[in-house]
Amino acid sequence: MLLGAVSLLSTACGTGDKIGSVSVTAAGSTGSVNLVGLGGTMQLQVNANYTSGKVIDETNFATYTITPEGTLWDKATALPAPPLGLSINSTGMITATDPGICTWFNEGTTTTPGWFYTGDYKIVATYRGFSSQPLYVPVSSGATGQAGQNGQCGPTE
To answer: Which one, 16, 77, 119, 126, has the greatest CB density within 10 A?
Structure first.
């Protein structure tokens, strides 16, 4: 009996639950994201995904890396580096900051828009040495100078 208990204990050693991956999403979003309006906010959610299937919200304990990619609506001007354009705090809240920027371009018309983004901010969350997949965030916190758009920047929904 004692030998069976020792055998059972030794086979269970080292099989503890471990983090398998980390993921980042825009909280409440089910599709594409867009940071709208100067001062507009978007809450990130960072989950630690364990090998057992358990998922734990670690948003407040993650660190964040932001990389500007692409251009403004004019397809020529590089995106400003944070904290210009957007910033993120330690709780994963993104805020659109001065200067207001537009990373969208309308390939359609004002009545039938076809919005495409020309740039975004790539955000990666890191928790306990695990990095998430990137989340790409276009921004419409400033007016566009695109002809015929009356300043409208990006989709409104």
So the answer is: 119
Domain architecture of the chain: domains with CATH: 18-140 (2.60.40)
C-alpha span between 150 and 157 (Å, rounded): 18
Structure tokens at 23: 């993921």
Cβ neighbour number for residue 90 with a 10 Å cutoff: 11
Residue 61 CA to residue 58 CA, distance in Å, equals: 5
Give 106's contacts (C-beta < 8 A, 6+ positions apart).
113, 114, 115, 116, 144, 146, 149, 152
pLDDT class of 157 with cuts at 50, 70, 90: low
Q: Per the omega criterion (within 30 degrees of 0), is the bond before 134 cis?
A: no
pTM, to two decimals: 0.86
9-20 pLDDT per residue, tens: 444 455 689 999
